[in-house]
Protein: Aspartate aminotransferase family protein
Organism: Mesorhizobium tamadayense
Amino acid sequence: MSVLNSTAARDIAHQLHPYTNAIRHEAIGPVVIERGEGVYVYDDQGRRYLEGLAGLWSVAVGFGEKRLVEAAKRQLEKLPYYHIFSHKSHMPSIALAEKLAEMTPGDLSHVFFTNSGSEANDTVVKLLWYYNNACGRPKKKKFLAREQAYHGITVASGSLTGLPNNHRDFDLPAIPVRHLTCPHYYRFGQEGETEAQFVDRLIGELEAVIAEEGAETIAAFIGEPLMSAGGVIPPPNQYWERVQAVCRCNDILIVADEVITGFGRLGTMFGSEHYNIQPDVLVLSKQINSSYQPLAAVVISDAIYKAVADNTGKIGTFGHGYTGSGHPVATAVALENIAIIEERHLVENAARMGRVLQSRLAALADHPLVGEVRGAGLIAGVELVADKSTKAKFDEPGRVGAYVFHRAHDHGLVVRAITDTIAFCPPLIITEDQIEELVSAFERTLEDTVRWIASGKPA
Ligand code: PMP
């Protein structure tokens, strides 16, 4: 078979891949994944991989879950598509909105559905602009976010994201946003500073930025309870409590972006419960339906809903919505997925297996390449460094991470390399034996990496 007819050549010829170096892709081509079962996926050569990242932090109930397939099939046969614009509705979106309002914390009461986490965060921006206009506060439009935050890639959500790679050459940020210091003590704590003093400094910075900008110009503080795609960074003790206290004092809303932490990832149903956050707006996606269908949800407080609703009463229809908002198949699959999470006690499993994963990885802390092991529940990051004692990064950031990513593949394990932090976020159904398989494949990968670095060879 000629190379040009191969699947790889066809892929290279016609796809611009998300989050991929296109030139390197032309050289190495894709790994073509064909099917999945439980915590495993299989490529078109029949090779099996333990999916250590649950796809993109998202497949809670595992791959090949027949109940989700059946739920999608039933809905496709009955009503494959309908919208919820202009006073129309359908049962799957009604039942899911009701379920989310019931299970989410505090007085969150109404849901706006989108197709993706990015669209959900774009919706948050527009909705809070609209809300503040409705409340007669047209200046209250700015957002506070953090460096290394990940909130998506559309124009507004990409602006909230605090990663240079998502801004450079895309002309972002394009909305008014201030990025505060990333709450990562290992990296951003100063010489001689305790973790508590680090938090004092971050809170001082937050207060200074509010004073500088004027609280009357700031709509909301947005944050992931535990920062994920920016490097798996759990917040220091008391960080969230203190951020919230400052925001409440200044009439700044709290938006919890739980696109990854929602539905059990941290061993609680929502990350907000884990960190004692009382959000005014909660953003959900991914594990909402194990990403079997594109879906995200913006869950808002009763107060926000009422102000928005009253405004539509005055000025007319709420001018925002997607063709796919509340898609019947995506929402039907979400209902079944949440039922599985509840019936099979997957949140409890995540808490139990999370303890196993965290303690197994913590045991690698003495390894010469390991700078820090961190995480909570079933999400973890292992930051690799050139020098443990000084925390020095590698000369060419990301090169070692990329080697680990590819070498782990050779050992039958899918991980994510975030520069040189290796991320783990397996499906919530993972068992203790599978965690052992995951960690031992990673240990073998680390040993190969030590030898590769010593050899001085290119990747
Ligand atoms: N917010 C968070 C916290 C995320 O992790 C992600 C995606 N990883 C998004 C938003 C964006 O979601 P999507 O890729 O569906 O647009």
In short: The chain has two domains: 31-61+346-455, 67-343. The two ends are 28 Å apart (CA to CA). The first helix runs from residue 7 to 14. Residues 56, 116-118, 121, 150-152, 224, 228-229, 257, 259-260, 285 surround 4'-deoxy-4'-aminopyridoxal-5'-phosphate (CB under 6 Å).
